[in-house]
Amino acid sequence: MKRVRVASLPHDGPLDAGVSHHLLHVLRARPGLALVLFDGAGSEQPAELVADHDGLAIARATGPVRTVSAEGGIDLVVAILKHQAMDLAIRMATEAGVRGIHPVLTERSVAKGERTDRWERITSAAAAQCGRADEPVIHPVRRLREAVEGLETPVYAALPGGPLAERAPGTCAVCVGPEGGFSPAEVAWLSAHVTPVGLGPHVYRAETACVVAVALLRPVP
Q: What are the beta bridge partners of residue 158?
């Protein structure tokens, strides 16, 4: 069943131009196609594609709006990675159930640009693909220390030599470094201010470390 992001629910009428183009010209969808509309905030509604009017797909609601259980309460604090790696980290983190993504600048960060619009498109597509009705919030880019100090939940950091991460007892955040890892000064600061955890015996790419850390620590909803 095709999942479609809409601005708000309930929705009964035309879908936006981008979604309409994808449905009508990429998927070649026809009237009668069952849809699930979701608003990115935790609600969804069954619907049906009923027509194509002036190039826009028309969706008709076939049931009430329902609220879906929220994902597990974990945020990802991640050093900005090179473009493709960052895109992949955000997509996999969305699929793994993060509620927020905090892009940060670290001493060894190579990529430094903020691409919030692109990252939000990735979370929206990933949420649709994996069946989420909500999407993680993309927070503004900040320095590592500023981002960590602004969090109001227990914070973990993926650091070499830390004890193997285990499922957190409640809402939390986890920090993952850039391609070259956190600098010695950052490791020292994190070790003194948050809980260090390890991700097992293997050496991961930064984008892989993000989803491994989330999977190990994510509390049960």
A: 197
**pLDDT tens, position by position, 56-107:** 899 988 888 887 765 558 999 999 999 899 999 999 999 999 999 999 999 9
* Separation between Cα atoms, residue 72 and residue 125, nearest integer Å: 19
State the residue range of the domain holding 15: 2-67
CA atoms within 13 A on the CB side of 132: 23
CATH number at residue 184: 3.40.1280.10
Per the listing, tokens 């929220």 go with: 70
Question: Which residue type sits at 71?
Answer: E
> What is the reported pTM?
0.79
HSE-up (13 A, CA, CB side) for residue 138 = 20
Q: How many CB atoms lie within 10 A of CB 22?
A: 15
Among residues 36, 67, 98, which one ends one of the domains?
67
Cα–Cα distance, 127 to 93 (Å, whole number): 10
